[in-house]
């Protein structure tokens, strides 16, 4: 959007209404206190300047405001001013902002650790042998630091967990019939080529499959998590790719969305709002998991320095697709503040705000 950039300064107050909200379990009284806090003229409504001070304090990192375009601030004001009387009353504020504030100030956050398994680090499908020449083991100390330093509500470990006859294995390319329209014949295929197989009658007509070296075979050392990776008690464990006839990059769904894992149900049982994705490989299972997290309406963050991939070009393609769909990209050093609700980024909260407007029938796209 156009417009000048607003460099709003934090108000010189010791009292932080957002911290008070969190400490007092988001009570109605605390929301009223927050509204009064920004009502500079004590007339029971916010002027534009009051609203700007609220936006400045809300979209901040430990009370240091993020830069926002004046046009975006005005858009938020117009979206909140339901009756268009050029001021914000308490009911408008609560309807427009209560959900967004709660999710930003006290998110329920899950760390999803994708496929940090031996075969992807030192085994049959080690990333250092793939086109990008990434070192998969480099994610382990970063993920361990995140586990130690960040108070996640939920931690999940995912595993590629394939049977011996899995469709993705290059070694098994002759076990299934090729589709006539396959761009490459199985006899001519190389590792990382894509072949089109005839699908099982009960699943689908054709299956497009990248051929990988046999990897992460169930109950083998190659399928184990890297020995240095910290294991958390009471974590969620998700085993994917167990059906020999279809691959499953995502920790939520197989590649054709014919069947889902237990991950989404388990996250919802724990009231998770935000999903942070790390692991291997960025352009395959990590990106597929992040995309499905977005589709399942989780606020989704990919921690880039805790991921490594297969192919640099594909990493950029997948990154662009994820960004277009609302995934946020950060480095691990900022994650503690985000999970604590002290680092409240405009790009993370925007989707929540818009979805809430849609829910209450107040969304008017411009």
From TrEMBL:
Belongs to the isochorismatase family. The lineage of its organism: Eukaryota, Metazoa, Spiralia, Gnathifera, Rotifera. This is nicotinamidase. It comes from the Eukaryota. PANTHER family: LD05707P (PTHR11080:SF2), PYRAZINAMIDASE/NICOTINAMIDASE (PTHR11080). GO terms for molecular function: calcium ion binding; nicotinamidase activity. Its EC number is 3.5.1.19. It comes from Adineta steineri. Keywords: Hydrolase, Metal-binding, Pyridine nucleotide biosynthesis. CDD domains: EFh (cd00051), nicotinamidase (cd01011). It is an enzyme of class 3 (hydrolase). InterPro entries: EF-hand-dom_pair, EF_hand_dom, Isochorismatase-like_dom, Isochorismatase-like_sf, Isochorismatase_Nicotinamidase. Pathway: Cofactor biosynthesis; nicotinate biosynthesis; nicotinate from nicotinamide: step 1/1. Residues 26-61, 68-103 form the EF-hand domain. Transmembrane segments: none annotated. GO terms for biological process: pyridine nucleotide biosynthetic process.
């Amino acid at each position: 959007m156009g417009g000048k950039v607003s460099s709003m300064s934090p108000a010189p107050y010791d009292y932080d209404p957002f911290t008070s909200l969190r400490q007092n379990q988001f009570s109605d009284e605390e929301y009223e206190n927050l509204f009064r806090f920004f009502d500079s003229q004590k007339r029971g409504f916010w002027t534009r300047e009051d609203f700007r001070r609220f936006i400045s304090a809300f979209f901040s990192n430990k009370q240091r405001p993020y830069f926002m375009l004046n046009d975006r601030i005005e858009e938020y004001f117009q979206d909140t001013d339901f009756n268009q009387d050029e001021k914000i009353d308490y009911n408008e504020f609560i309807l427009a902002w209560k959900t967004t504030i709660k999710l930003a100030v006290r998110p329920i956050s899950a760390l999803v650790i994708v496929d940090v398994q031996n075969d992807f680090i030192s085994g049959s499908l080690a990333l250092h042998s793939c086109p990008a020449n990434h070192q998969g083991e480099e994610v382990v100390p970063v993920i361990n630091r995140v586990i130690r330093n960040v108070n996640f509500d939920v931690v999940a470990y995912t595993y590629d967990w394939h049977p011996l006859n899995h469709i993705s294995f290059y070694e098994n390319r002759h076990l299934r019939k090729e589709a006539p329209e396959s761009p490459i014949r199985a006899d001519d295929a190389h590792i990382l080529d894509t072949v089109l197989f005839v699908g099982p009658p009960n699943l689908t007509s054709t299956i497009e499959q990248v051929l990988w070296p046999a990897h992460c075979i169930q109950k083998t050392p190659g399928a184990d998590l890297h020995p240095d990776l910290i294991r958390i008690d009471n974590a969620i464990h998700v085993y994917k790719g167990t059906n020999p006839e279809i691959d499953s990059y995502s920790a939520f769904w197989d590649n054709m969305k014919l069947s889902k894992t237990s991950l989404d149900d388990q996250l919802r049982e724990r009231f998770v709002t935000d999903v942070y994705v790390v692991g291997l490989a960025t352009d395959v299972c990590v990106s597929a998991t992040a995309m499905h997290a977005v589709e399942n309406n989780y606020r989704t963050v990919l921690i880039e320095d805790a991921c490594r991939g297969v192919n640099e070009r594909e990493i950029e393609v997948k990154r662009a697709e994820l960004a277009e769909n609302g995934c946020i990209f950060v480095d691990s050093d900022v994650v503690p503040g985000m999970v604590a609700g002290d680092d409240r980024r405009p790009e993370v909260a925007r989707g929540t705000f818009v979805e809430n407007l849609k829910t209450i029938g107040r969304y008017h796209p411009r």
